[in-house]
Design brief:
By secondary structure, this protein is mainly alpha-helical. It is about 55% helix and about 0% strand. The chain contains 3 helices and no strands. The longest helix is centred in the middle third of the chain and has 23 residues. The chain is globular.
């Protein structure tokens, strides 16, 4: 997700520098294009990946692609329903420790 957020930031900078929408860097957030990206970084970001079934990562990439598609369609006004925003960090609410 950090890479997706960096790509969004780069597009914002391109817009601010006067680059037209048609000439902005293309974003391909399909599972098909994100899989090779995951394969190129998995040893660095998840050195334990060999201990987990590959299906877990495939479904994670697929779910991330769906979420990014929903975000993109929401920002373009194409997606029906509630607005979707990009969450860059997760807040953890700590309650009473479990016994």
């Amino acid at each position: 997700m950090a890479i997706a957020e960096a790509n969004l930031d780069a597009r914002t900078e391109e817009r601010l520098s006067g680059i037209g929408e048609a000439n902005l860097t293309k974003l391909d957030w399909s599972a098909w294009s994100m899989n090779p990206l995951w394969n190129s970084v998995k040893d660095q970001v998840a050195p334990w990946h060999r201990e987990v079934t590959s299906h877990a990562f495939r479904s994670g990439v697929t779910n991330a692609a769906v979420a990014l598609k929903n975000y993109d369609e929401s920002k373009k006004g194409v997606r029906k329903g509630e607005s979707v925003d990009f969450q860059s960090s997760r807040t953890v609410i700590r309650g009473s420790p479990s016994l």
